[in-house]
Amino acid sequence: MSNIRKFGLQQWRFVVLSLAIFGLVAAVIPLSQSVRDHLELLESSPNGGSQWTLTQLNVEQARLQQALLLAMRSPDADLAPLRRRFDLYYSRSETVTSMRSSKYLTPDAQLIALLDSLQAQTIELATIIDQPDKELRYDLPILYAQIEAQDTFLQELSSKTTKIFAKTSDDHRAQLSKLLIQILVIALLLAVSFISVVVLLYRSVREARATQVTLTNVTARLQSTIGASLDAVIVSDQNGVLLDYNGAAEHVFGYSRDEVLGKQALHYLIPESNRSIMRSEIRQHLETGESPLVGKGLLQLNGLKKGGEVIPIEVSIAPAVDGDQTIFISFVRDISEREAIKENILRSRDEALKMAKAKSDFITIMSHEMRTPLNGVISAHEVLSSTTLTPYQNKFFSIARSSAAHLLSHVNDVLDIASLDASETAPRKDRFSPLEVIEDIIENAQSLARARGNSLGADFTGADAGFYIGDKRRFRSILINLLGNAIKFTQNGHIQIDFGTFLQDNETVCFEVHVTDNGLGIPKDKLEDIFNDFVRLNTGYDRDADGTGLGLSITRRMVQTMSGEMGVESEVGAGSTFWVKLPFVNCPSPETNLGAPAFNAPPSVGNRSQGIRALLVEDNAINRTLMLEFLEDVGLEVQTAENGQTGVEAANATKFDYIFMDISMPVLDGIAATKMLRGNMKGASADAKIIGFTAHSSQESRDDCLAAGMYDVLVKPVSRAGILSVLGFKPVAKTEAPSFGDKLLDLQQIESIKDILGPERFAKTCARFRSEMKKGFQDLVKDLRNHPPVGQPKDLVIQIHRLAGLSASMGASALHAKLAAAQSVAETDNIDALREELNAAAICLELTLGAEVYDEAVTANAAPRERPR
Question: With a threshold of 0.70, does the pTM exceed it?
């Protein structure tokens, strides 16, 4: 019972003390609020600021007087500095006059009158200073006198303001003293009450001590965890001062804990170039709560080690509130090793790319070296083609010529291997019969297969013998490569070619070809390797087989370029089957082929375009004459220019519908001229269609022309059909026309030139052609003999390009091909190979010019003379 009474008494005392404390606290609250208000008034008193502002006004007045004296000394002085100085004075004056509305000033009529007077004087001075320079120079003495008269006025204003602010501050201090005395009394009462409460809170104190011990243990464990962390842990306050720094941080940055605690983290741990950025981002977080640096997860920055070494680090910064300030906890990881590994990977990638390029360069060089003897073989075939052969000889001559042509195509594919990898070489759109191509390939391969003791078989069940649109040259190369490999790696066996078609959609037909042999076969772990560059399997027959190991890799590239598929199935000892699937576009008219086109034209004018103006820009006189005849023959009104510069001037002065532009010209080439015309939208022919013509047939050359702004590009020799095509006349397919690719002269073009020029002019043109070609070759031989063009490869290329274009224009197709090959070699700076190419071209030139005159070329080519044996 006594315990209960004791507990009740304690409870009563506790309640009484609690009420007393509550009452005292309640009394302190309004007093504290009053104290805070008075303190704020004293802290924010503008007395010091007002004195500073008035002082600055006096300073600006003195500077303005100096500026006035300088302006009055020189009648031609620049008044802009004076006006800027007055603007500063005016700004200070406005700040002073704004003190009329200050809540810290006791209302005083005299002070308000002084401020009003200052404002009026300032406005009056502004009226003078805003005058034009002439009037202002005249009033400078008046302005100086008025400003000088303000000295006494400003001293009086400063004294009055100081007295008023001092009186106000004294009143606030007196009131604050009374409040502090009242608070002191209440504080003493509170102290007594708190002492009484101590006894009642004894148990609470004991519990608090136990809690403190627990917190200490937890803190120690936390410190141990941070110290054992593999990542550096850095704690800093909002001013950047380091508060904590664990052992991992010592390892990362090289500083001991004692060296950096209490120091600026940015100064010791961050490179100087990044410090200002980090300061601004931390300040932004403190002001707005947002920053791209704080609380954004892992960031990659640069850190600074003790020795000055800059290292890459990965940082995560998290904010935390500690009392009334924000602290920043940073978790840092040294990623130098990871970045080194990354750099090694990138270096390895770059080295691999260099190796790939070196391999491609090696292929290109070797291919050029192969072309030199190959051109000799083809030239020999052309010499033989001008002699009379027996049917038996002609049969094997045709096989040799076809094989040489295929080998040249194969070498060209090797030269384009980089383009095939980059898918830069678009498939051709030839119209042909795939079945006829396969039959021709099998017939040509019979003798080679028999030489290895092999037999060839074919199954065309389900194959379509019609005509389709696709890349004939690549299709032929793919099948020859596959059949050649089968023959090469099979001995005394059988090789089967299966060919079939199936419809993919209404326009596309897929051709599927299987080439099967019963040779040694390929191990399963090598089935993918055989499609890599320079891979040759070490089999028994392979040791005796020639080749570079590029055949299948090039074949797969060609299949992929044609949007097809290719694969292989093989078993060691049983043989291999290579298959390809290639899509082609269905052709609706199998009876016809794309030969020389005929043209539909408006019935009123035939194949002519009257009233259309054209500009012909060509530097070669013969080519210019032929092109002029072509263009006039189709009804164009033609004006000529001899180089790109004169062509641009003519096109800017006169409106033309079409501009026929040669690409390679002196003074200004065709591409540069086209860019100038397209860049001048005010020229008379700004909208003209520019058609380029060049001896270069590469896609890259065509793309350069189109990128410069040309409408279309014609490849020399330029024909009447080509001109009509770019003018908008559509070709109508007719029966297959003969090909002149294997003949010395393009008879169709020569006949066209002769019909246009007439016999007399044609004879003169032929004579000039023979003269220029002979002189051009003599100049080339002289340049190569006396002045090896080590530093002038471009000059040789230009000379050869000119001769190639001239021969193409005159129908000398074989000579044009030889010169085009020589031009390609000239661009590689291989002088020895160039000499061999030009020797082959010289032989072809002799054959081309062997006729008495060019008007007898048709007869000479149609019935070639038998050469002495």
Answer: no
- 857: closest CA among 760, 749, 777? 749
- In tens, the pLDDT along 76-108 reads 878 888 888 888 888 888 887 777 666 555 556
What one-letter code names the amino acid at 84?
R
Q: Residue 839 and residue 833: Cα distance in Å, rounded?
A: 10
Task: Count CB neighbours of 340 within 10 A.
Answer: 11
| Cis status, amide bond into 759, omega within 30 of 0 | no
- Tokens at residue 437, please? 């191509």
The C-alpha atoms of residue 739 and residue 123 are separated, in whole angstroms, by 99
Q: Are 86 and 64 in contact (CB under 8 A)?
A: yes
What six digits make up the tokens of 185? 């009394």
- Encoded tokens for 474: 């690549």
* Greatest CA separation for the chain: 152
For residue 184, give the amino acid letter: L
β 658-662/613-617 pair status: parallel
Q: Is the dihedral of CA 558, 561, 562, 568 positive or negative?
A: positive
CA distance 302 to 310: 6
CB 363 within 8 A of CB 550: yes
Residue 480 CA to its chain's centroid (Å): 40
Record the tokens describing residue 314, joined without a space: 């990965």
Report how far residue 696's alpha carbon sits from residue 301's, in angstroms, rounded to the nearest whole number.
53
For the chain, the first-to-last Cα distance in angstroms comes to 150
Q: Is 131 exposed, middle or buried (0-12, 13-18, 19+ CB in 10 A)?
A: middle
pLDDT in tens, 774-820: 888 878 877 776 555 444 556 778 888 888 888 887 878 888 888 88
* CA dist., res. 634 & res. 630, Å (int): 7
